Amino acid sequence: MKKTLRGVLFFGIFALLLVVGSGIFSWIAPQTDEKAQSRNAAVIGIQEEEENTIDVLVLGDSETYTSISPMQLYQNSGITTYVCGQSQQRLCESYSLLKTALKTQQPKLVILETNTLFRYKGQNVEIEKELGEKVCSVLPIFRYHYMWKLPFDGEEATNTQYKGFRLRDKIKAYSGGEYMVETEEVAEIPEWNKSYMENIISLCEENNIELMLVSVPSPHNYNYKEHNALEQYAQENDLVYLDLNLKNEELGMDWNKDTMDKGDHLNIYGAVKVTDYMTSYLQENYELEDHRQDENYKEWGVLAKEYEERIGRIIAKQ
Question: How would DSSP label each residue in 234-285?
Fold first, then answer.
């Protein structure tokens, strides 16, 4: 009996420490967001935004935060956007981030970058990732455990965030030629990912949010078989699907300078083109408010001006 009581007491104290620790680390995290690891930056960043100020939420892997610039979008249209992108983001993480965002935001539109629909490493790995994400959501200490030392490490912040967008100006050309060669073949979207897509679709429907699928230009990640799969999936689920890989000429893509890593991710030059197109597309197809004259969004204007000046300095070097 005494051994049982000691065991219960031990686990009770351990659980209490986890809960208290989670609260402490959740408080520390926003203070060190510019030093946060890239996977956590999106989780911290969206929670720091003023309540109900984000109209468009972007989910997906690293293709998102190198392709869609919220500051440029705001400058050109007044639409407020936040990019909740993570390197190699799984759909279980997309779903978790959406739930996190909905605690404080009421977006009118969710854009899901589609590369993550094909990301699958076997059921065991995916279950492990899913369980890990659920544990981190309940006990943030496991997500932020490394952050206790960041205020004292003496290093300067390096992750300048522009509402989730990460500015990259390196150029490494893509030279592989045409990659969207038309075919009737259809790539396979893993069933595991389809099941998580059902969760995302349902969550959007419950909150009266429109869901849009977007494939940003990326010769490394896309081909016509994947386009066919995504188009078919969108039709079956009554979703809007925009494949920008079929619009390279319209976008004016120059693969000699618009990619930072030989066609995997866009750099700032490519992102400007994609964001210009997305701005027009959103204005034409969705009823999204222009906040540029609203005093409540003054901080967006200040950050947009800083962003514009930084972009100007980068372009001037070319």
Answer: HHHTT-EEEEGGG-HHHHT--TTTSBSSSSSSB-HHHHHHHHHHHHHHHHHH
Pair of tokens at residue 114: 């589609």
pLDDT of res. 20: 47
Q: Domain extents for the chain?
A: 2-317
CA distance 203 to 269: 34
Asked if 279 and 237 touch (Cβ cutoff 8 Å), the reply is no
Buried b (16+ CB within 10 A) or exposed e, 152-190: eeeeeeeeebbbbbbbbeebeebeeeebbeeeeebbebb
CA 195 remoteness from chain centre: 20
Q: Can you tell me the distance from the alpha carbon of 95 to that of 75, in angstroms, rounded to the nearest whole number?
A: 29
* pLDDT tens figures, 261-312: 999 999 999 999 999 999 999 999 999 999 999 999 999 999 999 999 999 8
Is the pTM here over 0.85, yes or no? no
Q: What is the pLDDT of residues 129-182, one digit of tens each?
A: 666 556 556 545 545 544 444 444 444 444 467 999 999 999 999 999 999 999
Q: Which CATH number fits domain 2-317: 3.20.20.80, 3.40.50.1110, 2.40.300.10, 1.20.120.450?
A: 3.40.50.1110
| Strand-pair partners of 82 | 57
* β pairing state of 56-60 and 240-243: unpaired
Q: What DSSP element (H or E) covers 81? A: strand 81-85
Amino acid identity for residue 216 in this structure: V
DSSP letter at 165 equals: B
Residue 210 main-chain phi, psi, to 5 deg: -80, 140
Q: Please give the Cα distance from 265 to 217 (Å, whole number).
A: 8
Which residues fall within 8 angstroms of residue 160, CB to CB, at 6 or more apart? 34, 167
| Cβ 54 vs Cβ 80: under 8 Å | yes
Cα dihedral value 41, 43, 46, 48, nearest 10: -80
